[in-house]
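Quick one, probably user error.
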């Protein structure tokens, strides 16, 4: 029988162990080091199983990972705390001064990237003789298009980036994952309604067909509802905190805000990520300036910074460990050679699509005002994919294509976290030495 603390104890213990190994020997940036060491440890377990099958290490690891359910753990648990903590430290003034750029990148940019990746994947799969419907390929595009705010904000803490550029990178990453999650729910419903010929779950236990208008309404309901919920919850917390001067109670209020608002969002089918971003921006800017004493502000910021670092460590370690689950759950009928080609193509497409999604809006903006040197290449290479893409892929319904989508997504995330994460500083220093 599994105890209540068994899973957290194992995860925190492994994160601490791998973090110490990275600190002593590997010496990579903390989160990237955790991914690499966890990945190596997982592959070692798989390798040992091939040599000594009696050990059953990968089977045990796979059972443990299944008991965690990465998708539920991240999307319905950790993400609320991580997004709120990330938004708490973003300068709202810098964000608002670039609101239209951020809005375009987080909406049009994600959609354009999704179609480029999905279309390219469809063409290559067809050329290889694989029958994968275009709408299923589009699902992959939506999964790997959004940059991960957790990965991006963690990266920004360690790099010297000009404030105006930092605002664009942080703002876009905070909002585009919320937009992508909403798009994902629409495209998945459309894809699997089309593929199976059956109605998609309407979110209330019934079945419904997905049309353009119903998809548009779903987008407005989820995104708009999430924004309103975050604003109302943030204002309510702000009102209470302004009438209190007790840092323990005020930290408790922010915890209640995060858990309460995200829970309501899940039940109301609103966008929880967008709600957390709005609430975090409100508390982190107006709340800290107008509703808190200096003592409370210091305790609140340190508390959420610590929560952010701990959950980041666990999340990135889990990304590395998930390779065991991925390898045992990617039976898709696609040959190893074809899988390798598709992985390489989508990695290239993900970077190219990101470039197009940044370049086109920046060219339009350049007609009205000057675009800073290095904006396009830096925003392109700093667009790191992470746990959200893996969680979305793991949440896909069972289908013949699920295995290859899961494998491709995971490899894109590994490339993004390790290769882009380790080299983005060089790209930034090229333009801002």
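Nope, works fine. Designed sequence:
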């Amino acid at each position: 029988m599994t105890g209540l603390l068994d899973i957290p104890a194992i995860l925190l213990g492994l994160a601490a162990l791998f973090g110490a190994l990275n600190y002593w020997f590997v010496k990579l940036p903390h989160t990237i080091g955790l991914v690499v060491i966890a990945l190596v440890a997982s592959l070692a377990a798989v390798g040992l199983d091939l040599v000594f099958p009696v050990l059953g290490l990968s089977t045990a690891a796979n059972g443990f990972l299944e008991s965690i359910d990465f998708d539920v753990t991240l999307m319905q648990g950790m993400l609320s705390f991580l997004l709120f903590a990330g938004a708490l430290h973003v300068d709202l003034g810098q964000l608002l001064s670039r609101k239209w750029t951020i809005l375009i990148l987080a909406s049009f940019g994600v959609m354009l990237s999704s179609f480029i990746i999905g279309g390219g994947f469809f063409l290559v799969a067809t050329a290889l003789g694989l029958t994968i419907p275009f709408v299923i390929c589009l699902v992959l595009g939506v999964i790997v298009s959004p940059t991960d705010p957790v990965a991006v904000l963690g990266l920004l803490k360690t790099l010297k980036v000009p404030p105006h550029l930092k605002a664009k990178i942080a703002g876009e990453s905070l909002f585009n994952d919320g937009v992508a999650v909403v798009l994902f729910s629409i495209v998945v419903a459309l894809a699997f309604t089309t593929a199976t010929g059956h109605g998609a779950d309407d979110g209330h236990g019934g079945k419904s067909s997905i049309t353009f208008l119903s998809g548009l309404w779903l987008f407005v309901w989820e995104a708009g509802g999430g924004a309103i919920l975050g604003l109302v919850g943030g204002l309510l917390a702000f009102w209470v905190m302004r009438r209190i001067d007790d840092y323990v109670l005020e930290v408790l209020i922010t915890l209640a805000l995060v858990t309460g608002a995200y829970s309501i969002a899940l039940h109301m089918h609103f966008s929880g990520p967008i709600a957390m971003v709005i609430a975090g921006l409100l508390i982190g800017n107006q709340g800290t300036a107008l509703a808190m004493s200096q003592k409370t502000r210091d305790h609140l910021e340190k508390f959420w910074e610590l929560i952010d670092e701990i959950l980041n460590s666990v999340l990135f370690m889990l990304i590395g460990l998930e390779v065991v689950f991925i390898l045992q759950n990617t039976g898709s009928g696609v040959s190893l050679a074809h899988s390798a080609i598709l992985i390489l193509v989508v990695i290239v497409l993900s970077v190219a699509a990101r470039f197009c999604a940044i370049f086109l809006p920046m060219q339009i903006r350049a007609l009205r005002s000057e675009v800073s040197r290095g904006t396009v290449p830096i925003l392109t290479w700093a667009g790191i994919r992470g746990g959200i893409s893996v969680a979305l892929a793991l949440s896909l319904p069972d289908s013949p294509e699920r295995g290859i989508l899961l494998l491709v997504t995971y490899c894109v995330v590994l490339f993004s976290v390790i290769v882009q994460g380790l080299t983005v500083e060089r790209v930034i220093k090229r333009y801002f030495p």
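DSSP finds 18 helices and two strands in the chain.
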